[in-house]
UniProtKB/TrEMBL annotation:
This is GntR family transcriptional regulator. Gene3D superfamilies: Chorismate lyase-like, Winged helix-like DNA-binding domain superfamily/Winged helix DNA-binding domain. Pfam families: GntR (PF00392), UTRA (PF07702). Keywords: DNA-binding, Transcription, Transcription regulation. The keyword DNA-binding applies. SUPFAM superfamilies: Chorismate lyase-like, Winged helix' DNA-binding domain. CDD domains: WHTH_GntR (cd07377).
Length: 245
């Protein structure tokens, strides 16, 4: 089926610029679930031929929808309808648990994982003495094989005996060791991705991201985890429930 058969064609009585008309056709198709998360958008040259417009017109339409967060570009793969994830900012949960709750499969690729000695910043955050052992984990997190986030974690050495204990889920390993955090302090801020992080996530440098800094504690009050997670801004919504009680 042709793309225009799915989303519609330009109306002769519409005098708006063609790139805006194409944007609206795709926007409406996403809003009505004609196009669903993960659906591929045809290449610019194909859309230009199909809609009988210049390629620059198509590009302008697609760029606008990417900036709105409705579409996402994956380097070397193409343009797709964004599958956004809602993450509760008031519940302490792992990436694996968040994805499972939404019917998506979480996976990781390791950037690095290694034991080491605490550095000054980690020592302050984890309340450790100089030279204390820690375990460091860095990985790319995926949902249904789509890169979603970068995660850099430092775990106090008394929580896990080795880096090999962590396979898919860090929190599953901590729970198995009897050291799963029960509360955390989190800070959220917007950041643009630098070239290195953008390459890992398959987005363009400067792409909007969300940085979550987490400091988590055991039941006895000892700090257990310091994690910095960089989430794609076009794929995540963070939700918090507020009350005046």
């Amino acid at each position: 089926m042709a793309f225009s058969d799915q989303v519609g064609r330009f109306r002769e009585d519409n005098r708006s610029p063609l790139y805006l008309q194409l944007q609206q056709l795709i926007r409406d198709a996403i809003g009505s679930d004609v196009l669903t998360p993960g659906n591929a958008i045809p290449p610019e040259r194909d859309l230009a031929v199909e809609y009988e417009v210049a390629r620059i017109t198509v590009r302008k339409a697609i760029v606008g929808l990417v900036e709105e967060g409705l579409l996402t570009r994956r380097r070397g793969a193409g343009t797709f309808v964004t599958g956004r994830v809602e993450k509760s900012f008031s519940k302490l949960s792992s990436f694996t648990e968040d994805m499972a709750a939404r019917g998506r499969k979480a996976s990781s690729s390791w950037i690095s994982r290694a034991p080491g000695q605490v550095n000054p910043e980690e020592a302050m955050m984890l309340g450790l003495s100089p030279g204390a052992p820690v375990l460091r984990f860095a990985r790319i997190r995926y949902a249904d094989d789509e890169a979603m986030a970068l995660e850099f974690s430092t775990i106090a050495g008394y929580c896990l005996s080795s880096v090999e204990m962590v396979q898919d889920s860090l929190y599953a390993a901590l729970e198995k060791a009897g050291n799963r955090p029960v509360r955390a302090l989190q800070r959220l801020r917007a950041v643009p991705f630098g070239s290195e992080h953008a390459k890992m996530l398959g987005v363009d440098p400067g792409h909007p991201g969300l940085l979550i800094e987490r400091r988590a504690f055991l039941r006895d009050g000892r700090p257990a985890e310091v994690t910095r997670s960089y989430y794609r801004g076009d794929a995540y919504d963070f939700v918090a429930e507020l009350s005046d009680i």
